[in-house]
Amino acid sequence: MQTDHSSPGKFLVRHVSRDRFLSPAGHWVKTPDAATNFPNLLSAINTCLGRGLKDVELILRFDGNRPDHRIRLDAIE
């Protein structure tokens, strides 16, 4: 059995009810292309917790045809 151990290409933060992504300027934007690509998952989590963001999820976006992994922040608080 072969397992794909590739790392995510992007780490994004999305506001769930607004369907918007966190930008480098701290605003919510419509497209993931305009969103902050955090260097790692811990950095994304620290930003969310430090800003007191609610109703957000972390998105791990992989290259190729692999689906995104979504983690609700309230699942790790």
Protein model, in words:
The chain is of the alpha+beta class. 14% of the residues lie in helices and 27% in strands. The protein is built from 1 helix and 5 strands, in the order βββαββ. It has one helix at 41-51; strands at residues 10-15, 20-22, 28-29, 56-61, 69-72. The protein has a 5-stranded antiparallel sheet with strand order 3-2-1-4-5, covered by helices on one side. The termini are far apart.
Average the pLDDT over all residues and give the rounded result.
90
Radius of gyration: 13 Å
User: How would you classify the quaternary structure?
Assistant: single chain
N→C terminal distance: 35 Å
- Overall SS class: alpha+beta
Biggest sheet features: 5 strands, antiparallel
**Low-confidence runs:** none
Helical fraction equals 10-25%
Fraction in beta strands: 25-35%
Number of β-strand runs: 5
Total individual domains: 1
Shape: globular
Number of helices, where a helix is a run of at least 4 consecutive DSSP H or I residues: 1
Quick structural gist:
The protein is α+β, with helices and mostly antiparallel strands.
